[in-house]
Specification:
This protein has 361 residues and is an alpha/beta fold. The chain has three domains: 170 residues, 3-Layer(aba) Sandwich (Rossmann fold); 61 residues, Helicase, Ruva Protein, domain 3 (Orthogonal Bundle), CATH 1.10.8; 96 residues, Zinc Finger, Delta Prime, domain 3 (Up-down Bundle). The protein has 18 helices and five strands. Bound molecules: adenosine-5'-triphosphate and magnesium ion. Magnesium ion binds next to helix 5. Magnesium ion (MG) binds next to helix 5.
């Protein structure tokens, strides 16, 4: 990543103080080559092969597991996985394919651009017809980022364009919800699916950035960054930068202050109290979180995530806990986000470890 680290400094801009201005780290450390992208190894390998061979098919980069006819009916597609490298990979691919010809050879449109039928009819068609000198065997590329926000009408208008100009122009789409892309477009494209980044993959990148930025950190701080980012690299890097600029030291406490999430250590002590059927302790800790101003959703989401990775309870109890937490989460999302709901959950979790005879009347 030596190439990207130099890009953070802006050219001297005549600013009186002449302070070097800093890009946000997510942009400063946005990978410029497919090799620098972490995670989703198999998919990235496929992209590398395409970049080497040069014959890029129309592609859609989307998220989630492959569509299975049986599960597709049962399960809604995941709503989105931001910050895992979709846009970055498409740009890296285009750069690697076209090199210096990137500027003339690529048309990028994202959700901030007008992308109605007219744009497809005029701008995209005009670009597809344009004559450009490219390296041999390469094609022009139309990047449609956040393609799920294109209207079905505009997507319909793309169908024939994709076919007619396929010998000179290839399309690369990125989206979070592949079900928003109409079937005919899906059938014209190779679909690559990205999964959430693993903790180790995020850690690897964070360590690289910490080293390059000379960030002071401890293990607790990195664990907290990974916990709060939920597989979203953009969030992890942003939180790292905010914590570093706010506190100059990345520790667990500082990260949770910056991210404004309930501290998992407190939530762990709530779960421990529940496991001992100690409702008073559990309620005390719950009140503490509530008084700090966290909403019921913040609290229940953290309780779920803590229980999911909590090793101090038998598997059976964990399953029962997660079931109860799920019910309470549902009620909260239905609008009943009160302390009483959370208190009710505490009571049920405590009761689970008590002998049933105690409740006989
Ligand atoms: N796999 C990755 N490897 C290295 N850096 C990454 C990766 N994924 C994301 N990043 C970092 O996060 C930033 C955002 O990534 P990107 O724009 O590719 O996300 P995205 O998947 O397109 O998200 P969205 O769905 O919100 O558009 C990048 O600038 C980069 O710094
Ligand atoms: Mg994107």
């Amino acid at each position: 990543m030596a190439s990207s680290s130099a890009k953070g400094k802006a050219p001297a801009n005549g600013n009186a103080t002449n302070l070097p201005y800093e890009l946000p780290w997510v942009e400063k450390y946005r990978p410029h080559a497919l090799d620098d992208i972490v995670g989703n190894t198999e998919t990235i390998e496929r992209l590398k092969v395409i970049a080497k061979d040069g014959n890029c098919p129309h592609i859609i980069i989307s998220v989630g597991p492959p569509k299975h006819p049986f599960f597709a009916r049962l399960m809604a597609r995941p709503k989105g996985m931001p910050g895992i490298g979709k846009t970055t990979s498409i740009h890296c691919l285009a750069h690697q394919l076209l090199g210096d010809a990137y500027k003339e050879g690529v048309l990028e449109l994202n959700a901030s651009d007008e992308r109605g039928i007219d744009v497809v009819r005029n701008k995209i068609k005009a670009f597809a017809q344009k004559k450009v000198t490219l390296p041999p065997g390469r094609h022009k590329i139309v990047i449609l980022d956040e393609a799920d926000s294109m209207t079905p009408g505009a997507q319909q208008a793309l169908r024939r364009t994709m076919e007619i100009y396929a010998n000179t122009t290839r399309f690369a789409l990125a989206c979070n919800m592949s079900n928003k892309i109409i079937e005919p477009i899906q059938s014209r494209c190779a679909i690559l699916r990205y999964a959430k980044l693993r903790d180790t993959e995020i850690l690897k990148r964070l360590l690289e950035i910490c080293e390059m930025e000379k960030v002071q950190y401890n293990d607790d701080g990195l664990t907290a960054l990974i916990f709060t980012s939920e597989g979203d690299m953009r969030q992890a890097i942003n939180n790292l930068q905010s914590t570093n600029s706010g506190f100059s030291f990345v520790s667990g406490d500082n990260v949770f202050k910056v991210c404004d999430q309930p501290h998992p250590i407190i939530v762990q002590s709530i779960i421990r109290a529940c496991l001992k059927s100690n409702i008073d302790d559990a309620m005390d800790k719950l009140n503490e979180l509530w008084d700090q101003g966290y909403s019921a959703v913040d609290i229940i989401v953290t309780i779920f995530r803590v229980v999911k990775t909590f090793d101090e309870m038998p598997e059976y109890t964990k399953l029962e806990y997660i079931k109860e937490i799920g019910w309470t989460h549902m009620r909260i999302l239905e609008g009943v986000g009160t302390l009483i709901q959370l208190g009710g959950l505490m009571a049920r979790l405590c009761k689970m470890n008590m002998k049933p005879e105690l409740f006989k009347v």
